Amino acid sequence: MKLKNIISKWTYVVALCAFGLSQYSCDDFLEREPLDRVTPELFLNSENDLASYPIAYYGSIFPTHGGWSTGIGRFDDHTDNQATSNASYGYYVPGEWKVPASGGLGLGNIRDFNWFFEQVLPKWRNGAISGNEANIDHYIGEVYMLRAMENFDFLKRYGDFPIIRNTVRDVHGDLVEAAKRAPRNEFARFILSDLDSAIMLLNNTGNNKVRLTKNAALLAKSRVALFEGTFLKYHKGTPRVPGGPNWPGADMPYNSGFSINIDSEIDYFLTQAMAAAKEVADGIDLTVNSGQLNPDIASSGAVNPSGWNPYFEMFGSRNMGSYPEILFWRDYDLELNITHGVSIYIERGANTGLTRGFVDGFLMKNGLPIYAAGSGFQGDVTIMDAKEDRDERLQLFLAGEEDLMESISKAGSSNIDSVAKFGVPTLLNLEEVRDITGYRSRKFLNYELDEAPGSDLTCTAGSPIFRVAEAYLNYIEASYVKNNTIDATADKYWRAIRSRAGITEDYNVTIGATDLSQENDWGVYSAGVPVDETLFNIRRERRNEFVSEGMRMNDLKRWRAMDQVKDYVIEGFNLWDQAYDDDLYKDEDGNSLLISDGGSTANVSAQSLGTHLRPYQKVIANNEVYNGYTWSKANYLSPISFRELQLASPDQVSVENSNLYQNPYWPSEPGASALE
């Protein structure tokens, strides 16, 4: 079986490979011993064995497109960037998120990776693995990176966490000992050490970047280091940071000798982020943006889907490996029935939408915020007005009334205006494919006629996982936070990012015109206090570059940017100035189908609430976010289940003696709400 087929079968391999011993190279499957006879002595002895092992974990560790949705285009839901039909009560209604009564930490993958190392590393050191030496190194490097990324998820979720380097016997005493939580900075250093091993062993050759690469590991290292460095900086002085007031780790006997120089740790991680980001960014240019905002249409009505704008096309390409900017991606295959529904759902609405706060944050092409004198902002009576002369990322990825969503050939009609163009948002569709805010992202759309021609799950465009633009932005942010200046490298990267976006390269124009009091962006704040204008605009650049790519929540958490979020109302497009009168919202007799009375059948918010659609103020009754989002301190970290706290205790009952400790502001009681 070809490598491409192995990659495409992520989900199938995961189902077959719940434990390391059940994993095989598809190439040699028929030559293998029966499953009930497999032992370490018969497995992981060859290059092919090692090649097969990491693939089983790609799907669980690297989220990608899949199923009935817009894939990773939904990952920014429940932030100030993007909203879906049902608000996250757990995040934004104090008291709704509870301490789970049961549930583990999810260490199965870590156990499998540690088992791999215990079997492979002695053989590797002794030269006992057959095959190409460089490839053997590469596959071992993949597992180091996979363990690092799995642990990074734990770092983001829990902060302090056990460092587990070996498989642990299923004996209670061993499990209790292994449950000791390392301070988060030490855990983050362990993750970086795994990434250093991966960087040393991985290469960038072959496989069209559908397998992990050295560049991907460098980018991952910059991501982890930036996350931890900025988390420590902005959460400093809270119990979420080791050594901070009321840090729960201080009460644990196993931390009795712990000490930390927090400023030194911050500097260390930011330095690591800069170095790793620069190493990958200096060698790879950004994909070109042609400036063309829609594909051409042939006389037949068919869209010419390729060659019109490489930057837009990159996100919906079936061969992302051809773009140097893409460092790692997932491939799909219709023949193997490894598909998704992204393009067809973008064409329909997808039960999600960008927010007004996000859209308003994009600059004009002249580099000015929309509120600045002389900006040239055309208002937002229509979506096309809102996009006029704006940052081309907004113009490309936000669907406006005149933008193409599909070719008329695909739509089966000769009327391009009513079928192929976006028109007004589809507010009245079934919930699954409704425009929630009216601002629909078309990032990841593929215009090929055979991309989902009739079935929702026949899309085969790739799913990007790592791209070099992040390295540019990681360096800019890390260097400024560390040194409080824009150095020559950051200047070069920032100008390149802005140039591709079609904005004037001089970021000082933007900084000088920025009025933080007029920015509807949670990234204005850290710890409830506004940051300076330069840092905010670095954050703005990151926000705007990663439209619908699932980066926002992690950024907001590490920046501690939600302390001030109280009664924050999500808004969408301008409905009540003009769009409400569109024929799409009327029945055949010309009567409006929009219901805005606040009752149980309401489908839009009332005009009296404002001209812009408010997706969570349509229905009044039983609506706990009607008055807006409110954040709780505890939500920056997840609670550990009550049962898991018990199991890490010597008597398996008393949580007071547990080697695990509950996260700040969370009680150690099942079903209890956050304290703050």
From TrEMBL:
Family (UniProt): Belongs to the SusD family.
UniProt key word Membrane: yes
Keyword terms of this UniProt record: Cell outer membrane, Membrane, Signal
Protein's name according to its UniProt entry: Starch-binding associating with outer membrane
Record's subcellular location: Cell outer membrane
UniProt xrefs under InterPro entries: SusD_RagB_dom, TPR-like_helical_dom_sf
Keyword flag Signal: yes
Pfam family membership, one: SusD_RagB
GO cellular component, one term: cell outer membrane
Domain RagB/SusD: 349-666
